[in-house]
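Make up an example, fold above all:
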Amino acid sequence: MVDDIILTYYGRTSMVSTLRQPSPGPTSSACINHNPARFLRSSSLSCSRAVTACSCVDDSSLNALTYYTGFSLLRSPSTQVENMPELVIPISMVSDWPEPRHQNGSCLNVVSKVEYVIKYTSKGEIAEATLNIELMNTTADTQLLQKHVVIFQEACETGCLLPVSLSVQVLWAQRGLSALPQNHILGAKFIFGCQKFKL
């Protein structure tokens, strides 16, 4: 359903959590990590992170691994553990990203943009998820503007549309013209019921 919170599943601990979309706080631009991503709500939010010599390697929000390691998305907002294998949607990465490192007063390979592209079905379920991350190099002791994007796209469902039922409506006249006064059929209407079958 629209506005349902997107859930994540950590297979190693069997823990269900929430896909976070960091956002600026109410009184500052500093990132707050509690904002949940919601189904069918595409959004782009920007907020700032403090980058120091220590946070460069210690702050997980600057590390690309944080945004895909150890968890998957759930197809629908269910927390029934026994159904998890059927509900898990792995996150596909468009690349491999190096971890941040501090070098000569600079912080290298820090996350500047996180973009999830989530495809969904006509049933309102998540079908697949792709992650793209942009990295940058910056100086230590600075504020980094980070962008967090969630985009929803309807998945193209492949399959064949085949007829599964047929009804016939016959149009007939009780009284015809003088040349044909008896009851007679005027025509027929054929109505096919179709269903899509996956290949």
About this structure: DSSP finds two helices and 14 strands in the chain. Residues 7-154 form one domain. The chain has two domains: 7-154, 160-197.
